[in-house]
């Protein structure tokens, strides 16, 4: 469930949990078994998730300078990736005259650590290169979020027995999703920066609005029935909202 470092001590009388820099440490009295410790850790799941989300808060200094440059960082599905901007190789285009246009267009490759953005030579050297990079990223996040949401939405709709009448994606400045009176859902494309469990929470939240167009107690009870990580998802969004955007 959680990875943690476990220390037994003969001096300890009680169990102690500590979350530091995204790492959970458990200190236990030596008369307890590992299974007993595990059960205790599980019973504190919500508290731990909250602390973990908060302790992974990115440092604001490095993110406020985000400028679509090489070496800047950006979250993709909850994992920080380093941006690498590369120039499309001309040789490649000439050697393959039958290439379709997408090959010479800019594109994005995601690796475990990097987000590689390939630009055509002209755009790569353009003085307003950041505008091209921004446009590419915006389109890419649109594709990523729509792919994910459209794959899981039908599952949640079935489970909750609530069905949307259309889904749209766009960039919102200050909201993650919405549900209108015609039961059409809209999601912020930049949710693709958040971990999957956070996106799932937003989907369930908006589906629940089909039944309750408010944030009443019954609304939250409905959300809680289908999402078991409401608190940690909200905490994650709160901790990261500053970096979940594409500056103009
Ligand atoms: Zn709401």
Could you explain how this protein is built, in words?
The protein is 44% helix and 21% strand. The chain has 248 residues and is an alpha/beta fold. The chain folds into 2 domains: 4-55, no CATH class; 60-240, Zincin-like (2-Layer Sandwich). Strands 4-5-7-6 form a 4-stranded mixed β-sheet. Strands 1-3-2 form a 3-stranded mixed β-sheet. Strands 8-10-9 form a 3-stranded mixed β-sheet, with helices on one face. The longest helix is centred in the middle third of the chain and has 32 residues, at 129-160. It is flat, with a radius of gyration of 22 Å. The two termini are 39 Å apart. The relative contact order is 0.11. The structure holds zinc ion. Zinc ion binds at residues 205, 209, 215. Zinc ion is lined by residues 205, 209, 215.
What characteristics describe this protein?
248 residues, Zincin-like, 2 domains, four-stranded mixed β-sheet, three-stranded mixed β-sheet, 10 helices, 10 strands, 21% strand
The average pLDDT score comes to: 87
- CATH topology of the largest domain, which one? Zincin-like
Overall form: flat
At the fourth CATH level, what is the homologous superfamily of the largest domain? Metalloproteases ("zincins"), catalytic domain
The arrangement of helices and strands along the chain is EEEHHHEEHHEEHHEEEHHH
- Report the biggest beta sheet as strand number plus sense, adding barrel if it closes: 4 strands, mixed
Secondary structure layout plus pairing:
Blueprint: E1 4-9, E2 16-20, E3 23-29, H1 34-43, H2 45-55, H3 60-64, E4 73-76, E5 79-87, H4 90-95, H5 101-104, E6 107-110, E7 114-119, H6 121-125, H7 129-160, E8 167-170, E9 177-179, E10 185-188, H8 196-211, H9 217-226, H10 230-240
Parallel strand pairs: 1-3, 5-7, 8-10
Antiparallel strand pairs: 2-3, 4-5, 6-7, 9-10
The structure holds zinc ion.
């Amino acid at each position: 469930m959680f990875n943690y470092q476990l220390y037994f001590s003969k001096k300890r009388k009680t169990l102690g949990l500590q979350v530091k820099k995204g790492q959970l440490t458990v200190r236990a009295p030596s008369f307890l078994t590992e299974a007993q410790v595990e059960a205790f850790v599980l019973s504190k799941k919500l508290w731990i998730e909250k602390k973990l989300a908060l302790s992974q808060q990115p440092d604001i200094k490095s993110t406020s300078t985000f400028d679509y440059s090489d070496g800047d960082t950006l979250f993709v599905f909850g994992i920080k990736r380093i941006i690498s901007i590369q120039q499309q190789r001309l040789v490649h285009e000439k050697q393959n005259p039958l290439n379709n246009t997408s090959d010479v267009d800019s594109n994005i490759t995601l690796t475990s650590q990097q987000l590689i953005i390939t630009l055509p030579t002209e755009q790569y050297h353009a003085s307003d290169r950041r505008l091209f990079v921004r446009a590419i990223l915006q389109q890419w996040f649109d594709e990523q979020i729509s792919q994910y949401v459209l794959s899981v939405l039908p599952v949640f709709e079935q489970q909750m027995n609530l069905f949307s009448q259309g889904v749209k994606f766009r960039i919102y400045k200050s909201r993650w999703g919405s549900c209108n009176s015609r039961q059409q859902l809209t999601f912020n494309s930049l949710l693709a920066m958040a971990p999957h469990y956070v996106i799932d929470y937003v989907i369930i939240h908006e589906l629940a609005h089909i039944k309750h167009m408010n944030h009443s107690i019954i609304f939250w009870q409905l959300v809680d029935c289908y999402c078991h990580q409401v608190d940690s998802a909200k905490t994650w969004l709160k901790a990261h909202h500053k970096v979940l955007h594409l500056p103009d």
